Amino acid sequence: MGINFKRVQTGVTFRRVAILGTVGAIAIVLMASAVSHTVFSSLGEPFGGRKWSYIVALLISLGISGAGSGIRIVMAPRLRTVAFMLSGVASGALLAFYYGGLAADENPQVAIASAVVGGLLMGVTCLRFRTGVVAVAVASAAAVTGYGLAFWLWAVAIAFWSGQKLLWGLVLSLLSLAYIGLTVSSLSLAIQAIKIKEPLGSGGHRNDRNDR
User: Fold this and answer.
1) What tens digit of pLDDT does each residue of 124-152 get?
2) Are 85 and 126 in contact (CB under 8 A)?
3) Helices and strands: H and E segment counts in the chain
4) DSSP string spanning 40-76?
5) What secondary structure letter does DSSP report for 105?
6) Does residue 7 lie in a domain region?
7) Structure confidence by residue, pLDDT tens digits, 191-203
8) Which domain holds residue 73?
């Protein structure tokens, strides 16, 4: 009868799980190294110190990356694309800032330029691809950034608790717990992205099913 089953997908293949699982692991390792070095170094910097502007930029990047991915589950489909792109841009900028600066012997100008380029490239990529490799990478990186910000908030909250500044300690503790929840949400999205039965190279025009 001329029936061709060549392109029929019957389930999630081992090849797909292996490829996307590897992509997720690489994204986690790269982001974990960047986040751990930047977060730990920022904790020892006094408020308003010489590096405070970089710390603010770091916290904003962590917050956007972690929240942009984590809250997608509860957002309307049309808004999920925007949240996904923002998360990808923030993650790309943070990675490029850290590794670009590291390659240039911690030159701040090179690090900032790298962050701009990295963010723009990830923005374009996220607009074009919203499933497969990109979806797994963005969600995996966001899980790390969400946890990194949760750790920073909890560490600062403990300092406020110790200093008897109970209100600020409570607020930061609640924010830390919220980002723990966003971390779990991002990990869930990464797993979902692995399970979506689409070709690994599919583009944005075929990815609407991921936002339903």
Assistant:
1) 999 888 788 999 999 999 999 999 999 99
2) yes
3) 6, 0
4) HHHHTSPTT-TTHHHHHHHHHHHHHHHHHHHGGGGS-
5) T
6) no
7) 988 887 555 444 5
8) 14-143+186-211
